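subagent[fold] <- orchestrator: predict structure for attached chain, return tokens only, no commentary.
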Amino acid sequence: MAFKVSVLLSVFILTYLLAPLVFTCENSDIQKSYPISLLVYNSHVSPMNLTFYTDIAYRGILLGAMRKIQAVDKNFTFTTVEDPNYGPFLVSVNGVAGNPAEHTYWELLVQPQNGTIIRPDVGVGCYIPNPYDTVILKFTTW
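subagent[fold] -> orchestrator:
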């Protein structure tokens, strides 16, 4: 009986001490948002670079941030198609669409704060930007 009481007391004390750390961290992170920038790079038009700024929800996807920018800035538009296997696929940005005959498409790149440019292994519907990332939508060829 004494053993059961001491185990229950230990569990209670441990829960009491650790619970504020767990719940404070999770709740404060969920409510935070952070800034990112979106660079549209298209060497075939003028101006070839357009940069947009927005805040993104904690663990929010890039597609949500793009929709947010599109809703408030008439200089940024995009279209996607829904692929049943892979989700949203970026088709056009600012009226310029990729063309299989011309081997053109919109490439997703990301420049984190350290300055390196990476190619995510997911698309706009799954990519989760980090704080202060510069997301690059680059019109390019394959």
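orchestrator: received. Logging for downstream: The helical segments are 2-30, 62-72. DSSP finds two helices and seven strands in the chain.
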